[in-house]
Amino acid sequence: MNNSIKEPFLHITKRKEMAWQKAWAIRGGMILLALVICAVITASTTELSPLAVYGTMFKGALGSARKVWVLGKELAILLAIALALTPAFRMKFWNLGGEGQVLVGALATAACMIYLGKTLPNAILIPVMFIAAVAAGALWAMIPAYFKAKWNTNETLFTLMMNYVATQLVAYYIIIWESPKGSGKVGIINQNSEAGWLPVIGNNKYLLIILIVAAVTIAMHIYLKYSKHGYELTVVGESQQTARYVGIKVDRVIIRTLFLSGAVCGLTGWLLVSGSDHTITTTLAGGRGFIGVMVAWLAQFNPIAMVASSLLLVFMTRGAQEISTIYGLNQSFGDILTGIILFCIISSEFFINYQIHVRKAAGKEEANV
Amino acid sequence: MKKKSLIVLLAIAIVAMFSLSACGGGSDAGSGAAEGDSDIMVGFICLHDENSTYDLNFINAAKAACDELGVEYQIRTNIPEGQECYDAAAELVDAGCDIIFADSFGHEDYMIQAAKEFPEVQFCHSTGTKAHTEGLDNYHNAFASIYEGRYLAGVAAGMKLNEMIEDGTITADKAKMGYVGAFTYAEVVSGYTSFYLGAKSVCPSVTMDVTFTGSWYDETAEKEGANKLIQGGCVLISQHADSMGAPTACENAGVPDVSYNGSTVDACPNTFIVSSRIDWAPYYKYCIEAVMNGEAIDTDWTGTLATGSVLLTEVNDQAAAEGTQEKLDEVKAQLESGEIHVFDTANFTVDGKKVDSYMADVDTDEAYEGDTEVISDGYFHESEFRSAPYFDLQIDGITLLDTAF
Predict the structure, then answer these.
(1) Cis-peptide into B282, omega within 30 deg
(2) Which of A22, A296, A298, B20 is the S-S candidate for A309 at Cβ 3.0 to 4.6 Å?
(3) Chain B interface test: which of A36, A56, A309 (most B C-beta within 10 Å)
């Protein structure tokens, strides 16, 4: 039998449910492997002790009260974007337009601060900014959703392209608002009057942002898990046919879900401009519209688990920045380490879900990794 | 259910790993960070890293100044012009820095924010415009009279044009230069105008086209901009943007190039003539020494040829006209002695008329209105009323191809 059928050297099959102890052994093993690979690369390309480098990363992310607050803020912003993408992803609508949806939200916020900052008191201005940002983000996401629902256009490309439109829109308004003229920067908006700035509570300027995102996280969890909407969008994601059969209006669910997705992105833009940066630039979202995709995937679209996966990514970014500062290494070095660790984490999911069979010369013996 | 806790545990596991290794390597990591308070500690914030010629120029100066004075320092690279700049400044304060420098125009507002919060730390911002109106004791601006350096670079360019006219490559009326600028505000206008006036001082028929990229670092746009200028008939290119885009385009097309921020002769051996740059080391040394001695730092500090802040690289004989170095030495001496002035009103016109009076926008305000008379004794007094340039006249002979930015 073995001689007559040619068996490939490697083949892959999907596993059945794996015992959780075993899954965790694989995850732990892959993280250890990642740290070992990083250590080898650090030792061979620099003259630094890998342990010292790991220690510095840790200090860079959590080494002082301020660093913890900054980490918390960065985590909150990244988490908010990942949360925004999640309902769309659960519906298998690949919203890659987080970047653009955040930017238009930020743009709407900045516009309110610039044009209404002198006339409205903060008590009215901030809610107005909030509504404008949420509406702008929602609108930006609903355009591709409408086309998807009506004509089944490819949402991946459509949302991706909307990012570039949003970036150019922001670039256009920067030229109108720039200070001084011709410098290409808006600078801090209302630096002296602080009109439209989120209030500082509890003596820390980032606390309010963190609390708002915490509330959004819980709300999103409840929405997805317990609401009828959340159930409907999951059904649409599993099978549009089934959804239609049970009487769900698929078009409406798509548009409604993207409204929510865009609205939370817009809210993040509002947090960035009103709460943290107080300016508008084309790089304000800073790629987080895409990193958010990874956060959501890593947590398998579970809002609570996303807290941990965004912590992981922000921790790595902040740590990488610290090693480039302390050791005078190029920032790319930190990116390499981050890349290796993420690669190992993602591949551990592969090994949990699939089994690799290696052909043995003798015959049927199997090795699984 | 399970998956949720999986990820949480995963993150905890990683953090635990790191904390273990942190204990193991603690002593090593400590030597890199600030320990003793007996010495001065210096922080630097850079927009990009050493891949940008602009930031490399700052980083080199930072290292040179700190090594010479024997002080500890930290350099934070790739800090965007947003809240990250404030966070970086605050973290440098936490790390024990007594004085912090930032290198990009857009960092200014965030440096001011940090300066207000940490009055015991000195904040110095290169290229900014607000220190003289902000009224903070610990916030300072600096620039250099780089227009003199660009004027000298322009003289070298003009001599190259003269050589091309003499050997018949071009006729005198075809002596057109091209200039790739980043944005349209005074810093860039002052730069290209002084470059043009330098060339005109030796080659009277010269004209110049200027294009803008809308970014300080966009290699593709700068390269395309240079190519567009070359196709438009420009026979020599210069730039005020920070990538290798324009010099590379020139080398490929065989068009002579005057670069900026430092020599590009290694990448462009056949076309690089000379480059002007600001050496920030004298300013850094001045400020750090002031902090060491407990002295006040100037609100606005302008480096000059005399302070060693404005430099020209070595002339590349492969591309430059004969006698360029001698001529540059001669003109430099005249600039230093005050015998000639870059923005002498006898040497340029606006709409065909000589300019005898100009109110420049020295104090930044929302109206962008002129507030200070800057022409007296027959020349435009650049970088005297504040360090950052404010020359923004559109003089005759220079054509702006696009002013979108």
Answers:
(1) no
(2) A298
(3) A56
